[in-house]
Amino acid sequence: MELQNDTHLAQIKCYGLPYGSVGTVSHILTIYTTVCLFFDRTPWFPWRENKHYTLDKLLSAAGIAGTAATTIFVMVRCRAEW
Q1: Domain around 68
Q2: b/e map of 36-75 (b: 16 or more CB within 10 Å)?
Q3: Confidence band for 48, pLDDT divided at 50, 70 and 90
Q4: The pTM is what?
Q5: Which of 26, 38, 45, 79 has the most crowded CB, counting CB atoms within 10 A?
Q6: Total structural domains in the chain?
Q7: Is 27 helix (H, G, I), strand (E, B) or coil?
Q8: Average pLDDT for residues 35-47, to the nearest whole number?
């Protein structure tokens, strides 16, 4: 029992990203925001046209790139834990 508990703690420590329902909600919000910005709509009020679309698209792309880079880093770092 203790060995299994240590294994779970090591996996949780290695995998420092949100997982489960928190991770799912995070992905849904990221996709929703990106789709709104792609169609030049504000994420808070999707029926309004976005007036700062260039900056918002750049920030959205940077957020996706940062998320992808962090995910790849964690996958490489924790590959021995699988």
Answers
A1: 2-81
A2: bbeeebbeeeeeeebeebeebeeebeeeeeeeeeeeeeee
A3: confident
A4: 0.52
A5: 26
A6: 1
A7: helix
A8: 84
